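hiii so my PI (J.) wants the whole complex modelled not just the main chain, which honestly fair. so below is everything: two entries, each one labled with what it is. i double checked the lines twice but i was tired so who knows lol
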Amino acid sequence: DVKVTQSSRYLVKRTGEKVFLECVQDMDHENMFWYRQDPGLGLRLIYFSYDVKMKEKGDIPEGYSVSREKKERFSLILESASTNQTSMYLCASSSPGQGQTRDYGYTFGSGTRLTVV
Amino acid sequence: SQQGEEDPQALSIQEGENATMNCSYKTSINNLQWYRQNSGRGLVHLILIRSNEREKHSGRLRVTLDTSKKSSSLLITASRAADTASYFCATSGAGSYQLTFGKGTKLSVIP
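here's the output for the full assembly
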């Protein structure tokens, strides 16, 4: 069964800590994404990557960085965690789709609920 | 960035009834997708409709797309308690890798 695996379901970290959220996919997908989901705000794109060692900023990249050293793994890094980064973090992957149409669906992980205290 | 907006925000129906959710968006799209999210879990892809398509079916799901009105609807027929979840529309712009999601419709199906 193909899947996207996020390393932790729940995580509690202290303000100022450096936090790593790991995501691994086994579908050989080129594209990977990190979103955060907050009540009333929906899903917001933090960063995405369309190839190994490539990364692009999404809508809310401030306070975050990413790393993609291998095709199957995409890590989200909170350099210095703050309470406003308490959220549900969702990783997703997709293939580029056929031709130029970019027709693809995302496969999501189960999410990591991060609490920063 | 463009964003889909779902309507209504919440919907409560009896088991066996049909559920209709709507999505509106602002700019030209390449395709529109619908996802389901069970409480506290990740999203699951349901169906994709391309900008040159008007209607698509998958099991009990029917999606329509009206690009002139920049809107889409998701119909779930003969709903079941297991359909209780939040439903999101997501849009992909021309040449874009990423999807932009709406805020979702929370569907409750009462047994």
